[in-house]
Automatic annotation (TrEMBL):
Protein name, as recorded: Formate acetyltransferase
GO CC list: cytosol
Organism: Anaerostipes hadrus
Cleaved signal peptide residues: none
Keyword Transferase: yes
Modification Glycine radical occurs at: G800
Length: 826
C-alpha cells in the first residue's frame, strides 16, 4: 500500500488495529449507527398488506381517491416506533434496516421473489415465515392480473417485447432495451418542502376544502375530475397529520415510563413537536427538520420513487429557521449537526427493496439517493452558500455514512472557501460530494422552457439529474439501452452470442463483407437507431398506462401545477409543466473504443483481418492474446485523442437527432443520458467479448467514464474527451456521469487541495454536467475484497452514490478496482 492514505483509509486501519478513530465525532447518531450496521435488512409487509386491504374495499372508485384512502388506512393501522436515543422520529417499517412492499408494481411476482430474496447475491433481504405466508395468501392473490408490470408486458409489440424480456418469462430482463417502469412507480423526485414548512398540511387541507365548496355541482368535469382530486388532498392531509399524532402519543407514553431525566425531557419535546408538525407551519429549526422528515417518509409509503424522494436544497429552505434559532440562542451549530445526523442514520435504516433481478442489479449496495443539494445560486442568481452549507459539508467529513448523498452545485461565482471545503470533503475518500455544474445545467433548463428563477433554483435529484419543484412534471421511468448489444449485432449480423442463432436486432450484413469502416459505422448506427426506436415505443406504452395504475395524492398536493389543474402528477400531461425524460446510453466507451480499434487496426493499418477479429472475440481471446493486446492499445476514449473522440461525438449526435425528432411525439424531452447506476455490470453479462479487448460477460464502461484502465493520459485528458464528444448545439441531452479515481498521494496536503480545486474549476469551465471521485488506494480495495470482515465500513463511490464496498457483488468490486487510479491531478 502506498504511504499516503485518505482519512477514510486511516479510520479503517485504526478500526482494524482497535485504535481511537480520529476525525469522527461521537454523538447519539453514531451510537445508533453502530447498531444499524450490524443488522441485515428485513422485509416489512405492513405497507403492502394495508394497501391491499384498502384497495379491496375501494374497487370502482377514482384511483387518486383509492390511493388517499390507502394512505389513511396505513396511517391508522401501521405499527409506530420511536428508536432509542433518536431525536428525529417516523419510520415506515420495523426497527433496524428494513424494506417495504409495493404490490401495485409487481405484486404478481411477490410469491416467487420472496423465495430467493434472503439468499440472492445482490442486496439480500430476510423475511419471517409468518410474513411470507401473508404475502402468499393475502397480498399476491389480489394483485395477480392487476399490476402495471403485467399490463405493460401485454401492451408491448412483439419485436419490442423481444428486446425487453426473456422469452415468455416476462419477469426477467434481456438487458438490451430494459424498461425500468415496472420496478418503480416514478422517476427520482424532489418535493416543494417549503409549502409544508410555511403552511403545514392543515393549511393545504383548508385550501382544498375552500376549493371544494366552490365547485359547480352541475359540472361533469368538476364532479368527476376536480372533486376526487380535492377529496384525496383532504384525506391525505388527514392521514399524515394522524400519523404524526400517533408518534406524539407514543412519545408521551414512553416519556411517562422513562426513568432517565434527560431522555424523559427529549421524549416530551418530541411529543410536542409531533403534535405541531407537519400539521401546522414550523416555527423552529427542529420543527422544520421533523416536518420535512415526516413528509419525506410518508412519500416513501405512498409510492416507490426511483432512487427515493430527494431532500432538495436543505441549506436554503432550512436557513431562515437556522438563522432565527441562532439569533435567539435556541440552538447551536453542534446541535444542528446532531439533528442532521439523526436524520441521516434514520435514512440508512430504510433500504430500497427491489424484487426484480434487474432492479436489484441496477442498484447494488442497497442504493438510494436522498440527495441533499448545497451551494449553487439563489433564485436571483447570486451565490447561495451559507452557514448551513458548511455544516452539511462538515457532517459528511465527520459522520461516516453513505446517506444522504451530498450534491454540491458549482457555479462561476462559487466562493473560494466553498471550493476548498468541497475539495477537503472529497479528499476524505468516501466519495462525497458529487459535483453538478450550474453553467451546464441552467442553460439546458432554460432551453426546455424554464424561467431564470426556476432554473437557478434547481435541486439535484437521484443519481445525477436535476428537478425544478413546481415546474417539472414528468415521472415516467425510462429505458436503459445496451448499445454494446448494437455493436455485437453488427459483428454477428443481428445476432448476439448470448442468444445463439436467434435474430435479435437488424440483419445489417456479414461483418466480413464490409469493405470500409464507413460501412461498419453505418451498420452500427442502424442498430443503435433500432434500439432507440424500440425504447420510444416502450416509453409510449409506459406513458399511456401509468395513469391507470398509479396515483400520488401527497406528491400532487405538494406541486403547484397539480393543485391548479386538479391533476394527479402521474397523469400523462400537467398544464404548464416541463416534461424532462431521458434514455440511457449504456456502454458508451466500450462501443467507442471498439469502433476505434476496428477502424485503426483493420481498415487503416491493416494489422488485423475481419476474420481474425471475429475469431478472437468469438473465442473470448483464448489463444488470441496477441490480438487482444493490439486491441487494448488502439486509440481509446478518455485520452484527449480526437481519433476516438470524433467517433464518440458522432454516436452522441445521432442519438440526439433521433430524440430531437421523435421525442415530440411522446410529448416529452426524451434526452440522451449517460448514467448507468450499476447497470453496466448486468448489461455486460449478456455481451460477449468486444473489439476493445474486453472479455466476455464482464462489465461495460460506466457512464461517460473511460473503459476500465484505458485512460492513460491523466484525469484532465478524461475531461477533455468528455468535452470533445458533446454536441453543444443540441439541447436533447441530460446528465453525463463521470467517475475519477485518484491516489490519495496526489491530493495530499494543502498543495493537493489546491490542485483538486483547480481541477474542479477546469471541469466547470468545460461545461461538463457531473463529476465524482474515489480517493482511495487500489490496494485498499484489494485487501477489502480478501478480508471483508475487516473492511465492512469502507465506502466507495459507484455511480452517483456511495455504498459499502463489502456489500457489493464481486463483479462490481472488480469493476471499481479496475478503474484507473490516477497518480496526478493535472
Amino acid at each position: 500500500m502506498s504511504q499516503s492514505r485518505s482519512p477514510q483509509e486511516i479510520r479503517i486501519q485504526n478500526e482494524i488495529n482497535h485504535k481511537k478513530i480520529a476525525n469522527v465525532h461521537e454523538n447519539r447518531a453514531t451510537e445508533i449507527l453502530k447498531k444499524v450496521r450490524e443488522s441485515k435488512p428485513q422485509i416489512d409487509i405492513e405497507r403492502g398488506l394495508y394497501f391491499t386491504k384498502s384497495f379491496q374495499k375501494t374497487e370502482g372508485q377514482p384511483l387518486i381517491l383509492r390511493w388517499a384512502k390507502a394512505l389513511k388506512y396505513y396511517a391508522e393501522n401501521a405499527s409506530i416506533y420511536i428508536d432509542e436515543n433518536q431525536l428525529i422520529v417516523g419510520r415506515s417499517g420495523k426497527p433496524g434496516r428494513y424494506g417495504i412492499l409495493y404490490p401495485e408494481l409487481d405484486g404478481d411476482t411477490l410469491d416467487e421473489a420472496i423465495k430467493t430474496l434472503p439468499s440472492r447475491d445482490v442486496s439480500p433481504f430476510d423475511i419471517t415465515p409468518e410474513d411470507a405466508k401473508i404475502i402468499t395468501e393475502q397480498i399476491t392473490p389480489y394483485w395477480k392480473g392487476k399490476t402495471f408490470h403485467e399490463d405493460l408486458a401485454k401492451a408491448l409489440p412483439r419485436e419490442t417485447k423481444k428486446l425487453t424480456y426473456n422469452g415468455d418469462k416476462e419477469l426477467t430482463s434481456r438487458y438490451i432495451v430494459n424498461e425500468t417502469a415496472s420496478f418503480r412507480s416514478s422517476l427520482q423526485w424532489v418535493h416543494d418542502y417549503e409549502i409544508v414548512l410555511e403552511k403545514g398540511f392543515e393549511g393545504i387541507k383548508e385550501e382544498a376544502l375552500e376549493r371544494l365548496q366552490q365547485l359547480d355541482s352541475d359540472s361533469p368535469v368538476d364532479q368527476t375530475e376536480k372533486r376526487p382530486f380535492l377529496e384525496a388532498q383532504i384525506i391525505t392531509s388527514d392521514a399524515i397529520i394522524l400519523w404524526a399524532e400517533r408518534h406524539a402519543k407514543l412519545a408521551k407514553e414512553l416519556s411517562a415510563k422513562q426513568r432517565d431525566a434527560d431522555r424523559k425531557k427529549e421524549l416530551k419535546i418530541i411529543a410536542e413537536i409531533c403534535e405541531r408538525v407537519p400539521r401546522y407551519p414550523a416555527r423552529t429549526f427542529y420543527e422544520a427538520l421533523q416536518s420535512q422528515w415526516f413528509t419525506q417518509m410518508f412519500s416513501r409509503i405512498e409510492q416507490k420513487t426511483g432512487t427515493i424522494i430527494s431532500n432538495g436544497r436543505m441549506d436554503q429552505y432550512l436557513y431562515p429557521f437556522y438563522q432565527k434559532d441562532i439569533k435567539e440562542g435556541r440552538i447551536t451549530d453542534e446541535q444542528v449537526q446532531e439533528l442532521f445526523e439523526c436524520m441521516w442514520v434514520a435514512m440508512s435504516e430504510f433500504v430500497d427493496l427491489y424484487l426484480s433481478e434487474a432492479g436489484g442489479s441496477f442498484n447494488e449496495g442497497y442504493a438510494h439517493w436522498e440527495a441533499v443539494t448545497i451551494g449553487g445560486t439563489t433564485k436571483k442568481g447570486y451565490d447561495a452558500t451559507n452557514e448551513l452549507t458548511y455544516i452539511l459539508l462538515k457532517s459528511k467529513r465527520e459522520f461516516p455514512l453513505n446517506y444522504p448523498d451530498l450534491a454540491a452545485r458549482i457555479h462561476m461565482g462559487s466562493p473560494k472557501r466553498y471550493l476548498y471545503e468541497v475539495a477537503e470533503t472529497i479528499k476524505d475518500g468516501t466519495g462525497f460530494p458529487k459535483l453538478i455544474n450550474d453553467d451546464e445545467v441552467v442553460p439546458i433548463l432554460l432551453s426546455k422552457g424554464a424561467s431564470l428563477k426556476e432554473a437557478y433554483d434547481y435541486s439535484v435529484s437521484g443519481c445525477a439529474e436535476c428537478r425544478m419543484p413546481n415546474r417539472d412534471t414528468y415521472t415516467s421511468p425510462n429505458a436503459y439501452i445496451n448499445f454494446a448489444a448494437a455493436l455485437e449485432m453488427v459483428l454477428y449480423n443481428g445476432k448476439m452470442k448470448k442468444y445463439g442463432d436467434e435474430i435479435v436486432g437488424l440483419e445489417t450484413g456479414n461483418f466480413e463483407d464490409f469493405e470500409s469502416f464507413d460501412e461498419v459505422l453505418e451498420a452500427y448506427l442502424k442498430q443503435q437507431k433500432n434500439l432507440i426506436r424500440h425504447a420510444f415505443i416502450q416509453q409510449h406504452e409506459i406513458i399511456r398506462l401509468r395513469g391507470e395504475h398509479f396515483a400520488t395524492p401527497l406528491g400532487s398536493s405538494l406541486h403547484k401545477l397539480c393543485r391548479e389543474s386538479y391533476k394527479d402528477l402521474h397523469q400523462p400531461s400537467i398544464p404548464g409543466g416541463i416534461d424532462l425524460g431521458y434514455f440511457e446510453f449504456i456502454g458508451y466507451a466500450t462501443v467507442v473504443d471498439s469502433l476505434s480499434a476496428i477502424k485503426k487496426l483493420i481498415f487503416e493499418e491493416k494489422r488485423l483481418t475481419k476474420k481474425e477479429l471475429l475469431e478472437a472475440v468469438n473465442n473470448d481471446f483464448k489463444g488470441y492474446e496477441a490480438i487482444r493486446q493490439l486491441l487494448l492499445h488502439a486509440p481509446s476514449y478518455g485520452n484527449d485523442d480526437s481519433y476516438t473522440d470524433e467517433i464518440g461525438q458522432l454516436l452522441d449526435l445521432e442519438a440526439q437527432k433521433f430524440t430531437h425528432k421523435y421525442g415530440k411525439e411522446l410529448g416529452v424531452h426524451m434526452d440522451l443520458r449517460l448514467v448507468p447506476f450499476t447497470s453496466h455490470v448486468p448489461f455486460g453479462k449478456v455481451i460477449g467479448a468486444t473489439p476493445n479487448g474486453r472479455f466476455s460477460y464482464t462489465p461495460l464502461s460506466d457512464g461517460s467514464s473511460a473503459s476500465q484502465g484505458a485512460d492513460l493520459n491523466g484525469p484532465t485528458a478524461v475531461l477533455l474527451s468528455n468535452y470533445k464528444t458533446k454536441n453543444f448545439d443540441y439541447e436533447d441531452h441530460a446528465a453525463r456521469l463521470l467517475n475519477i479515481k485518484l491516489s490519495p498521494s496526489c491530493v495530499e496536503g494543502e498543495n493537493g487541495t489546491e490542485k483538486l480545486v483547480q481541477f474542479i474549476k477546469a471541469w466547470h469551465d468545460l461545461r461538463l454536467w457531473h463529476l465524482q471521485f474515489n480517493v482511495l488506494n487500489t490496494e485498499t480495495l484489494r485487501q477489502a475484497q480478501k478480508q471483508p470482515q475487516l473492511y465492512k465500513n469502507l465506502l466507495v463511490r459507484i455511480a452517483g452514490y456511495s455504498a459499502y464496498f463489502t456489500e457489493l457483488s464481486k463483479d462490481l468490486q472488480d469493476d471499481i478496482i479496475a478503474r484507473t487510479e490516477h497518480e496526478e491531478v493535472s
